[in-house]
# Entry
Amino acid sequence: MLLSAKKHNFMLGKSAKSFCAFLVPVCMLLARKKMSENTNNNVLVTGFGSFGIHKINASWEAVSALPDKIEGFNIIKNEIPVEYKYVEKNVPLLWEQYNPKLVIHVGVSSLTREIQLETCANKTGYVKQDISKACPESGQACCGKDSSEDCIKTELSTEVICNRLNKNPLFKASLSYNSGRYLCEFIYYVSLNVNNRRTLFVHVPPLDQPFSKSELTFALEEIIRCALELIEEEERKYSIEFQSDVVKVYKNGRAAAF
# Structure
């Protein structure tokens, strides 16, 4: 009887460990799946207002000309003033308001004649004054929540998007690893800190240097389409994982983790 009880307790302990090993990855995937399902049919695209020599900002000119719908998604267009405080306060609110499937921030750069896909953003180093002659406290993005990472990378494949653009002879696209430590990189960090799986930043050159407004808008449309495809591909992958790899149900209804 004693041996039987010990064996029973051992089996219970083993079952509990197996159940915990099963439960943790399932809960993680369920949370990620729920986040995916809760996103609205919105794509948020922002451009910046005027600053410095950019009295007409190519980023907002291109964004404002986007269609209201792309691939069935609502395109929410928002002009952002070149102010740190505005970005830090309002960009997280835009995420809450629209719960977007994808966020693309667009900025202008006089240093490029290509369409640049930014790969990452840094937390510190923001010492250049904005249009209100202000800088963030301590020169860093705080984001109102835990933002301990010094550098956050987008999980969207910038290489895939870049290659897609370069297939069109109209465009020349490239990857960038330095967003400039100004409002462009600042807004990128703020959004990456919210969700780096759905965020991208695009730098465009000034108008007609060499791309026209309509060409820049067309390029943004292509970027949006490609980014949405990447997100949907990731969601399908996790859905398959959830169904096939994490949980297997026996005929008697018991679940096991492998």
Summary: The helical segments are 2-38, 58-64, 84-98, 158-166, 183-194, 213-246. The longest helix spans residues 2-38. The first strand starts at residue 42 and ends at 48. The two ends are 33 Å apart (CA to CA).
